[in-house]
């Protein structure tokens, strides 16, 4: 069973890893097939359900869309909890979320503008360890620059450098150069050998930490490891992703900045518009299509779209970064970075290029379209090959050879992009202004209510003769006689309103619990049906309604809403004070009595 579970662990780890899944999906697929086959033999064929069989198709998903975590819903499910905390009431939840997110982003932006750039080196000390020849170096316990986090404490001090597992003992700085003083595990072996050597996945069994110190540049500490104690050593497991953000491979980046080779200028396109794996030609929509919207939405190309020869200048993980690279493309021939590609496509000459635009690059979704500078020319026959950068070999798996794209030829379609109007932009501005005015009206009402409370008496006191909570019907009748006096009623309302409540139901529940005892509430309902007393015609209801109107957060309540809330409170009266549990126990006792009687 352990060997069977290892099959699942190895295959899923390959499909999760950005470095392994691209070139080793076939191997992972074969391992998953073996896992499903053995599942029936070990646990029984009747347990091979859809969930087990569907594991075979994970490799195809990774082959088509990239690592499994890039198409996982878990990040969205996790973020859903944050969104639910933002929503304060059920009315217009989407607008509440948008406004709260905008406020948070604005505050964070202002804080970043005010804050100076902090030093990545944290917690200076002089306690070592350090060698005699490094005495002039400054010592620190932590290093963090937003992308990398290194610490001398357990949990963030283990790294894999060139197949050697290191433990960071101290962080040193000299002449703006940051280095790490490390200890190396002398014994570094494979943790398992079935279905492949675990070192191919970066998993090691390490032991015997050497006392000799080694100095390593901090830039070399890229792959962080997790140490799990096992017997006389540790199992070292690599983290699949960097701490700060998801690590995209070039082939997984969704947007590309391309140059049309026959004088057509440069533009942003979704990577799905490339005609083949060589990425030397792309589809381009006809002139009637809103190019900017099609690029942002990643529209799937149609069969009637034209095809043109292109050269990739750079790739980006989102549309905003692609726009930045598009502006840079006017002055440089190569936009590739370490995150885009491991090698440059050629230095080229510095020259400005015309930028193909169909609509504004501002944040408005349907802004004005701009005329295209020129149309890309028809592409010529061209082919290239790709060489995989990492492979895992196994006796029963043959990885596929590099693919060669077939040449594509098409004729150019001349067109001119028509400039649209800015109507949608002005509509959006007016809508935002209306929302701001409505928010100001709400804030004004709340401010006026707070000012009234401040200018009023410091603390309201019950008038003489008012005793709460009411416990008998006689108490209710006596209070009704006193509430005929409007001054007496006003003083009672001033006391009840201080109980407060953020919603109508919450305020009603708190205020009625103050006014009436649980036992008394079971003798009343709102309309006086089924032999109970009527609450609707009492002056006490006027006390409740007046208190809800004076409460700042429920001041917009109508009389009908107050009646509905009071009726709801009386409906639940029979279950308060432990009566729900007592009733359930009574019913159980009655059933038991009936059963024993007929035996």
Automatic annotation (TrEMBL):
InterPro entries linked: DUF4218
PANTHER family: SI:CH211-262H13.3-RELATED (PTHR34153:SF2), SI:CH211-262H13.3-RELATED-RELATED (PTHR34153)
A Pfam short name: DUF4218
Full protein name: DUF4218 domain-containing protein
Keyword Signal: yes
Signal sequence extent: 1-21
Underlying gene: LOC109195078
Keyword set, alphabetical order: Signal
Biased composition (Polar residues): 332-342
Domain (DUF4218) ranges: 16-98
Region named Disordered: 328-411
């Amino acid at each position: 069973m352990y060997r069977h579970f290892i099959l699942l662990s190895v295959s899923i780890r390959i499909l999760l890893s950005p470095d392994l899944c691209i070139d080793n999906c076939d191997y992972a697929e074969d391992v998953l097939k073996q896992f499903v086959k053995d599942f029936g033999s070990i646990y029984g064929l009747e347990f091979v359900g859809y969930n087990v069989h569907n594991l075979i198709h994970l490799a195809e998903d990774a082959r088509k869309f990239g690592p499994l975590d890039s198409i996982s819903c878990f990040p969205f499910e996790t973020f859903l909890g944050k969104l639910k905390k933002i929503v304060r009431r059920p009315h217009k939840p989407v607008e509440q979320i948008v406004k709260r997110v905008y406020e948070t982003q604005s505050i964070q932006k202002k804080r970043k503008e005010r804050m100076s750039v902090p030093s990545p080196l944290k917690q200076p000390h002089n306690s070592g360890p350090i060698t005699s020849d490094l005495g002039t170096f400054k010592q620190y316990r932590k290093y963090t620059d937003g992308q990398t986090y290194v610490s001398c404490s357990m949990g963030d001090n283990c790294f894999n450098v060139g197949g050697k597992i290191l433990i960071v003992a101290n962080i040193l700085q000299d002449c703006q150069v940051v280095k790490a003083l490390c200890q190396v595990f002398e014994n570094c072996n494979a943790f398992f050998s079935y279905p492949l050597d675990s070192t191919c996945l970066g998993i090691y069994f390490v032991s015997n930490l050497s006392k000799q110190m080694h100095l390593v540049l901090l830039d070399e500490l890229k792959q962080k490891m997790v140490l799990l104690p096992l017997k006389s050593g540790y199992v070292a497991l690599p983290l699949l992703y960097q701490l700060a953000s998801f690590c995209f491979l070039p082939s997984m980046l969704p947007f590309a900045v391309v140059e049309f080779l026959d004088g057509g200028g440069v533009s942003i396109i979704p990577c799905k518009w490339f005609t083949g794996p060589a990425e030397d030609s792309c589809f381009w929509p006809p002139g009637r299509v809103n190019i900017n919207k099609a690029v942002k939405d990643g529209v799937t190309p149609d069969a009637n779209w034209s095809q043109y020869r292109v050269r990739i200048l750079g790739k980006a993980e989102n549309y905003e970064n692609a726009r930045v690279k598009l502006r840079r493309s006017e002055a440089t021939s190569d936009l590739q970075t370490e995150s885009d590609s491991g090698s440059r496509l050629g230095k080229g000459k510095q020259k400005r290029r015309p930028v193909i635009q169909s609509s504004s690059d501002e944040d408005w979704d349907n802004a004005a379209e701009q005329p295209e500078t020129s149309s890309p020319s028809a592409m010529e026959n061209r082919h290239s090959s790709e060489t995989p950068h990492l492979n895992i070999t196994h006796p029963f798996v043959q990885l596929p050879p590099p693919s060669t794209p077939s040449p594509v030829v098409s004729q150019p379609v001349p067109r001119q992009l028509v400039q649209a109007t800015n109507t949608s932009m002005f509509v959006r501005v007016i809508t935002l202004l209306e929302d701001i005015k409505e928010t100001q009206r709400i804030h004004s009402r709340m401010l006026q209510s707070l000012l009234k409370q401040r200018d009023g008496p410091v603390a309201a006191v019950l008038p003489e003769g008012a005793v709460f909570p009411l416990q008998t019907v006689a108490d209710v009748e006596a209070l009704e006689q006193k509430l005929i006096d409007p001054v007496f009623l006003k003083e009672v309302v001033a006391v009840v309103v201080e109980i407060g409540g953020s919603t109508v139901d919450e305020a009603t529940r708190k205020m009625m619990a103050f006014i009436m005892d649980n036992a008394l509430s079971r003798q009343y309902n709102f309309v006086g049906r089924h032999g109970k007393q009527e609450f609707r015609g009492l002056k006490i209801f006027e006390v409740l309604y007046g208190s809800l109107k004076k409460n700042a957060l429920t001041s917009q309540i109508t009389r009908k809403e107050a009646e509905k809330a009071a009726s709801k409170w009386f409906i639940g009266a029979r279950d308060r004070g432990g009566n729900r549990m007592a009733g359930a126990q009574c019913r159980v006792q009655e059933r038991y009595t009936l059963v024993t009687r007929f035996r």
